[in-house]
Amino acid sequence: MLSAHAFLQYSPFLSTTTLLEPKTKKNLSYKFKPARFTICSSSVQGQKQDIVIVGAGIAGLATAVSLHRLGVEAVVLEQAESLRTGGTSLTLFKNGWRVLDALGVGDYLRTQFLEIQGMAIKTEDGRELRSFKFKEEDESQEVRAVERGILLETLASQLPPDAIRFSSKLAKIDKSESGETLLELTDGTQLYAKIVIGCDGIRSPIATWMGFSEPRYVGHCAFRGLAFYPDGQPFEPKVNYIYGRGVRAGYVPVSATKVYWFVCFNSSTPGPKITDPSVLKKQTGELVKNWPQELLNIIDVTPDDTIIRTPLVDRWLWPTISPSASTGRVVLVGDAWHPMTPNLGQGACCALEDAVVLARKLASAIKSEPTSVEDALKSYETERWPRIFPLTIRANLVGSLLQLDNPLVCSVRNNVVIPKVVRLGPILEHTNFECEPLS
Asked: What is the percent of the chain where pLDDT is above 70?
């Protein structure tokens, strides 16, 4: 493995924090190591780095862990003072779990979260339209809702000490005279990187620098929350969808005590940013005030500080029109490259897929010539684009259809399409993804 000291030349951190202490370690085939992270900014100027990953979200940490498993170390820059463990949860299908297994953390995460057995679709008045069992549609399917914060902490725990630099916000990116990429941080720190991997989310400054347009607002917003039942949540392990006219909702058990929910609604504009959680909860309740009582109860027991409101956006990667995923030795991963709406539950799954595909190609190029790094990055794009582009479009179309508010169209949807036409198996074919363990 390449020496961490050859890659990492930055200041010591203030403390060591044990992020994970599994209750039953004897059932795990691997060990989780304490992770130490920087809480302060470095003042050293003009540092040289081989690989810099910008962003310590799911894409950034998964990419860093993938490279680490393959013997290549990287510095991860995160603008926040600590891991951004806020937010609610995300749904991972079998493609996401195959990547997590390849990274060596799948079994640990399975002990934290319930496996979802099926799905039920209802109308806003509580009438059930259809139900499915995932294993009946696809024996290999695996679905779990995972708390974002726990996923991030789990991935971070797999990295070497001091691999993540917090309070490191990117202010400027440029090419240096030597051909390296200059990253200047808001505190004045300058890093000269041989390879830069942009994992800095849907508003990625690196994507903007590479010529990508801002993600496009798709016409609807979502409230999300994580309900808490200290004495145990009462729901079966299945996804529950409720469809109305121009409004839809859903909820799914995450663990023994937590239930994730969302309410998606049409809006001509993203609207003002609201940070008062009590206002967010009130607005959510007003949207679904006459809907099934169990949904209202879930919203009611949700801690205010877990409720968020976000406009839904995506970016379509048109062939020959959209910029390339890489420029020289700068490349994009996850939402920074292909933000998509959550209607297929594939945003996080695709970011995880990106991470392992890029890491394998990059590690091979670094360790064995004659494949160049630039060729490896182009190969990554060539492999990923045919998968990402159709999924982005499909997610958009599914959301648009479900958000229609025309009474006649909604009637056909509820009485014909969902009960008699929809088949879940073909819809889930996009979750097929082969991923061998990284070593």
From this structure: 89
